[in-house]
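Q: I'm building a small set of examples for a reading group on sequence design. Run inverse folding on the following structure and report the sequence directly after it, with nothing in between.
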């Protein structure tokens, strides 16, 4: 075998051996996250306070796995833009937490949170676990719309959870949560309506649609937050209604 061919063969084999599946990556990340977070209490001198983990997007899946499988010890978590919590958890109890300890923000036009339901209900290929934004999951939903949101489903809305103060509802809500004041969300008008499913009666569909779809669930996911106008002006630093956090 020519020298050039041997080098090329070795390189391909090396890359193949180093490749890890997305599942392996997120499971490894969950173990690392749990180890780091659990070490905070061990290494911290004095009281830690309210220990909160905020997981955005795939980070929420990693957070969910760390809670389920790696015994991550936290007081609460906030999951935003989540495609799923991973593992087998179907409710907050599966994360070993209570409803008052799991906060979820899902922008109505964030395509990542919508795509979860599409893959789960239509294609049947979901591998990222339950959607924490659903009412059946039992989490505390907080407002997460942005005044800059798009007119339709968009990937850009997946990155608006940290929009500048005054423009993002979720940033204001996260400040309440991370400082241990999640119980103030209601008083601050930051509680949201969770998503829910509405079943479709396939018997009322035309026959040419009814037969091909007879084995496919047709539950429609409704996001109530999408029907309201996002609010602005949320800024803890200049809010006269309440004392400083």
């Amino acid at each position: 075998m020519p020298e050039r061919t041997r080098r090329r063969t070795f390189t391909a084999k090396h890359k193949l051996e180093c490749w890890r599946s997305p599942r392996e990556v997120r499971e490894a990340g969950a173990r690392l996250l749990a180890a780091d977070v659990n070490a905070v209490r061990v290494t911290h001198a004095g009281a830690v306070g309210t220990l909160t983990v905020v997981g955005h997007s795939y980070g929420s899946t990693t957070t969910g796995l760390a809670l389920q499988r790696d015994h991550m010890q936290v007081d609460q978590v906030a999951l935003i833009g989540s495609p799923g919590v991973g593992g087998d958890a179907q409710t907050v109890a599966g994360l070993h937490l209570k409803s008052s300890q799991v906060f979820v923000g899902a922008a109505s036009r964030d395509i990542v949170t919508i795509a979860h339901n599409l893959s789960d209900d239509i294609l049947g290929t979901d591998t990222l676990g339950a959607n924490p934004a659903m009412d059946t999951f039992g989490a505390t939903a907080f407002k997460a719309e942005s005044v800059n949101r798009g007119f339709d489903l968009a990937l850009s809305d997946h990155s608006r959870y940290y929009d500048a103060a005054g423009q993002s509802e979720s940033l204001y809500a996260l400040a309440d949560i991370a400082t241990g004041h999640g119980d103030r969300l209601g008083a601050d008008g930051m509680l949201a309506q969770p998503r829910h499913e509405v079943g479709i009666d396939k018997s009322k569909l035309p026959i040419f649609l009814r037969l091909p779809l007879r084995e496919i669930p047709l539950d429609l996911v409704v996001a109530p937050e999408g029907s309201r106008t996002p609010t602005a002006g949320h800024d803890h630093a200049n809010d006269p209604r309440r004392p400083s956090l």
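Residues 21-38+50-238 form one domain.
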